[in-house]
Amino acid sequence: MMMTMLLTLILSVSETKLLMRVMRRTKTLLGLRMTTVAHRLMILARTTTLMLVTLTEARKEKSVKKEPKKGLVLKGLPLKKKALATEEGSSKKKTQKKKKDPNAPKKAMSGFMYFSQMERDNIKKSNPGIGFGDIGKVLGDKWRQMSAEEKEPYEAKAQVDKSDTRMRLAITRTLSPCL
């Protein structure tokens, strides 16, 4: 009876009944005394309860906020990166971002950007009150539906702009010591 009470604390009623049935069959099949099986189950029940108590205590401790670590702390880095940064012999060094020349030319525009410049005003006139994002969606749909022949003038402008940008960048690099 005591064993049944212990088991019901840990297991549900149906699981306890099933376990008791298995214990009775085990006694007859293996020739073991019921007390031996009961003793083993009581040990199992004790360890399970201890495990449950330990688990709940661990959860309570985890929920309590920890104090911040004292000592050398690298601000702005997550904990894993802090460990990597303080680790000796790390092969990766932080590379600094290249300084950008303020006189350098901007990136060349694509054919779609030239198309967008030409068609944006037409879409605004035909759809007053349309949002910026919606205009972009409409422009994207129109661009996808255009054939290669229709895209050709915009792509030609983009090629000219690309070669012009390369030329200006080469000139800027020769004159500027920054790049």
From TrEMBL:
GO terms for cellular component: nucleus. Keywords: DNA-binding, Nucleus. Residues 105-173 bind DNA. InterPro entries: HMG_box_dom (IPR009071), HMG_box_dom_sf (IPR036910), HMGB (IPR050342). This is HMG box domain-containing protein. Residues 105-173 form the HMG box domain. Residues 83-109 are annotated as: Disordered. It holds the Pfam family HMG_box. The keyword DNA-binding applies. The keyword Nucleus applies. SMART domains: HMG (SM00398). GO terms for molecular function: DNA binding. PROSITE patterns: HMG_BOX_2. It comes from Brassica oleracea (Wild cabbage).
